[in-house]
Design goal:
Elements (H helix, E strand, L loop, with lengths): L2 E8 L13 E3 L3 H10 L4 E5 L17
Antiparallel strand pairs: 1-2, 1-3
Length: 65
């Protein structure tokens, strides 16, 4: 089962509860978890964490004389 990072977000402010806390959820777990939180009238929901790319390397700029 494929798993991805998720964030718990406050629905009133649309801010993550804790940006450093990104548990791994299965692709089929997010929707039922959000439905259960809505049923229990919690003000939070899960959303997928944005995917970020980390690039490493060196760039050299040169001009012709």
């Amino acid at each position: 089962m494929e798993r991805r990072r998720a964030l718990m977000v406050d629905t009133r402010t649309n801010q993550p509860l804790d940006p450093a806390w990104q548990p791994m959820l299965g692709l089929t777990e997010l929707e039922p978890a959000n439905a259960l939180m809505q049923k229990n009238q919690l003000s939070y929901r899960w959303q997928w964490a944005p995917r970020t790319a980390q690039l490493q390397g060196v760039v050299q700029l040169a001009t012709q004389a």
